[in-house]
């Protein structure tokens, strides 16, 4: 299901299901538009009235997810009226990454290392899912496929075009979905990309380059960069002008995630 986010506070305006590159324009000089997806992921931003379109998950996405995930093959839409209550613990993970603050390093070929702290006290499902994928080696060799200057860099898609995922989806840990999450989308925040379905995040994540308050409460932020924002800036400076109108880079221009490693 392809959905549009034409306003930072409005989710779920439908788009043409067959159009994977459509995005709304708000008569601004540069419109931030969405990842295309017959399969997966979107980010919403409206700094200076920018708009994005977000897109849904593919049942054929490859890879494995973590415990406390649900199959993405159902590809059903959800809204806030059907979101799980924040006190429901039935889908809470119980593994080693289900609580505490953990650390990981993201090695980007030709750019350097981005170190992140992941807060499972705030987003245990999200951190557990990310860490499980890391330990499976899922991210190794994938790319940052979407780069938007003064917004974010996005990666973790096995298809390299915004349409892929791990094959499983997780509950969205953010306030619009009934889950308290006070991690703000400031410079250096790491967060999960998703479609208009609140529970559609899978493997794609993004790192915020410039504070984007409109994302707060709408996307599952789960940590922050502790070192390496110069690497994020270098990626943006080297590639942002090479993307299409949605920020999607051609395969040859996508920075490669050599590996992601859990430190603790």
How would you portray this structure in words?
There is one protein chain. The chain is mainly β and 264 residues long. The protein has a domain at 60-72 and 97-262: Cyclophilin-like (Cyclophilin). Helices cover 9% and strands 23% of the residues. It is built from 2 helices and 13 strands. It has helices at residues 124-135, 229-239; strands spanning 2-5, 13-14, 52-55, 70-71, 101-108, 112-119, 144-148, 152-155, 168-169, 189-192, 205-208, 221-227, 257-262. The protein has an 8-stranded antiparallel sheet, with helices on one face. A 3-stranded antiparallel sheet has the order 2-1-3, with no helix packed on it. It starts with a strand and ends with a strand. 55% of the residues are buried. The model is unreliable at 1-90 (pLDDT under 50).
What percent of residues are in strands? 15-25%
| Low-pLDDT regions | 1-90
What's the average pLDDT?
75
N-to-C SSE series? EEEEEEHEEEEEEHE
Note the total helix count: 2
Q: What order do the strands of the largest sheet run in, or round the barrel if closed?
A: 7-8-11-10-12-6-5-13
The main β sheet shows up as: 8 strands, antiparallel
